[in-house]
Amino acid sequence: MGSCWVRLILLLLGVLVLPAIVECRVRHYKFNVVTKNMTRLCSTKPIVTVNGKFPGPTLYAREGDTVLVKVANHVKYNVTIHWHGVRQLRTGWADGPAYITQCPIQTGQSFVYNFTIKGQRGTLLWHAHIQWLRATLHGAIVILPKRGVPYPFPKPNKEFVIILAEWWKSDTEAVINEAMSSGLAPNVSDAHTINGHPGSVSACPSEGSYTLPVESGKTYLLRIVNAALNEELFFKIAQHNLTVVEVDATYVKPFQTDTILITPGQTTNVLVTTDRNSGKYLITASTFMETSIVAIDNVTATATVHYSGTLASTPTMLTKPPPQNASSVANRFNNALRSLDSKKYPAMVPKTVDHNLFFTVGLGVNPCPTCTAAAANLSRVVAAVNNVTFVMPNIALLQAHFFNISGVFTTDFPGNPPTPFNYTGTPPANMQTTNGTKVYRLPYNATVQLVLQDTGIIAPETHPVHLHGFNFFIVGRGLGNYNPKKDPKKFNLVDPVERNTLGVPSGGWTALRFRADNPGVWFMHCHLEVHTSWGLKMAFLVDNGKRPSQTLLPPPSDLPQC
Ligand code: C2O
Question: What's the angle, vertex CA 81, arms to CA 76 and CA 86, rounded to 5?
Answer without folding.
Answer: 175
